[in-house]
Amino acid sequence: MMRRRLxxxxxxSLLAVGIGACSKPKEKPKEEAVPVTVGKVEQRDVPxxxxxxGSVQPLSIVAVKALVNGQLERVxxxxxxxxxxxxxxFTIDPRPYQAALSEAQANLARDEASLRNAEAQARRYVxxxxxxxxxxxxYDRITSSAEASGAVVAADRATIQNxxxxxxxxxxxxxxxxxxxxxxxxxxxxxxxxxxxxxxxINQVAPVYxxxxxxxxALNSIRAHGGAGIAVSATPKESGQxxxxxxxxxxxxxxxxxxxxxxxxxTFANHDRALWPGQFVNVSMTLxxxxxxxxxxxxxVQLGQKGQYVYVVKxxxxxxxxxxxxxxxxxxxxxxxxxxxxxxxxVMDGQLRLTPKSKVEVKQSVGSAS
Length: 370
Fold this sequence. Notes:
By secondary structure, this protein is α+β, with helices and mostly antiparallel strands. Helices cover 26% and strands 38% of the residues. The strands form five sheets. The chain has a six-stranded antiparallel barrel with strand order 2-11-14-13-12-15. A four-stranded antiparallel beta sheet has the order 3-10-8-5, with no helix packed on it. A four-stranded antiparallel beta sheet has the order 7-6-4-9, with no helix packed on it. Strand 19 and strand 20 form a beta hairpin.
């Protein structure tokens, strides 16, 4: 009986101890700091640019064609090589045209002899008509014959000039400095004057045009900054480094109503052949420089239901969700119109885990530019 009472007392004591232990308040878990990358809001001068995708076009394209018929005797260049203005490209068999020139020269010599004889007769008849030895009818016939012989000689000389011109067409030379394309007609083939198929096409690649279009909203700024002459840079799409710099040389006279854009052309010296006809490039045109702009890396700017915002890191490592007004994005930076002050620290990576009550742990600090 005594043992039973002792067991009951022990069980009651243990139960009381357990209830007391369960009734103690639990400690609140410590909130974990969110690791983030931060950067400073900077103030600096930022160039305001208009960007577009453009295509490289030759400054000039010439389709070289034959101006006379004949057999293509020789090609003086290799496909795809640079040629200079006046350089010989093709030779067409000149023998038929040399023969035509020789014939015209012989006809001229014959007719000049006839002219000299007719002029001599006309001079004799001048004296005879004064003495009434010949009739006026005979005199008029002789003088007319002399004039006709003179006209024949003039026609012969024109024929010689035409024959010389046709002979010169047998030697085809480059009309400009440029680069040849694929050879369309090889030596030994017959060619026709002004045939639909050109012998070769020459592109002028130094300088070159870059053709691109910008929104009509940029037109006023372009015109305000002088239009033609604005600096333009071109970057191949596969590279991030500007390899060519030129100037705006053409502004179209109308905005395309279907696309709302206006076509522009920039001229590049292209001495190093960095730009190639038909190539697509990223074009950037600097219109002005915004002095003392407030700049932050674009990756710091987030988009929420109420607009754009950034997380600003406070002195106690807390964060503030602050709305901002972005004036323009330039490259990987954003120009802030309002909402930030130069020198403030903002979160650049790790925003998805943040709330306005979060604490942050800085794992990396970088500048405003990425």
